[in-house]
Amino acid sequence: MEPMVNPMVEAVQIALTGVTVVFMALTLVSLLLGLIGRVDKPIQQLMSRGKAAPEPAQAPVAPVVEATGAELTPELIAILTVAANEVLQQPVRITRVQYNQPQTGAWSSQGRISIMASRRRRDR
Questions:
Q1: What is the pLDDT at residue 52?
Q2: Could you give the CA distance from residue 33 to residue 11 in angstroms, rounded to a whole number?
Q3: Other Cβ atoms closer than 10 A to 58
Q4: What are the Cα distances from residue 13, in Å, to 4, 21, 31?
Q5: What's the farthest any 2 CA atoms get from each other in the chain?
Q6: What is the pLDDT of residues 2-54, one digit of tens each?
Q7: Is 49 helix (H, G, I), strand (E, B) or coil?
Q8: Residue 30: what pLDDT?
Q9: What's the CA gap between 93 and 80, in Å, rounded?
């Protein structure tokens, strides 16, 4: 005959076993990622030996242009064109500039709605 095991003791044993297995798996993943990083670094160094290091390019100093609201000055368009040319590495023609307005997130909107609802006047 099998002795009766307290259900609470059995539940604690199962929980501890589960937590132990999860932490062992996380430790194994962490060690593997660290090993991959250590192995990858020498490989990258060997691959980059044959390549000549590019000389750092000196960035041109752009004049400070202040635009308020929807004001587009020729200087601002020129700066935007040069910046886009540098990033895309191809000729760019600026045809339109659209200012993005900061969007409020859904969480912020929902929070405001719940606060307003909680402060709603209740008629008696």
A1: 60
A2: 33
A3: 6
A4: 15, 12, 27
A5: 93
A6: 678 889 999 999 999 999 999 999 999 999 999 998 998 888 888 877 666 55
A7: helix
A8: 96
A9: 10
DSSP assignments along 31-90, one per residue: HHHHHHHHHHHHHHHHHHHSSPPPPPPPPPPPPP----TT---HHHHHHHHHHHHHHHTS
Alpha carbons 70 and 3: distance in angstroms, whole number: 82
Confirm whether pTM is higher than 0.90.
no
State which amino acid sits at residue 55: E
Residue 77: helix, strand or coil by DSSP? helix
Entry field: residues in the chain:
124
Please check the confidence at residue 62 and state whether its pLDDT lies above 50.
Answer: no
Say if CB 93 and CB 110 are below 8 A apart.
Answer: no
Dihedral angle at the C-alpha atoms of 77, 82, 85, 86, nearest 10 degrees? -140
pLDDT at 114 over 70: yes
* Cα gap 62→84, rounded to integer Å: 14
Q: What is the DSSP code (8-state) at residue 111?
A: H
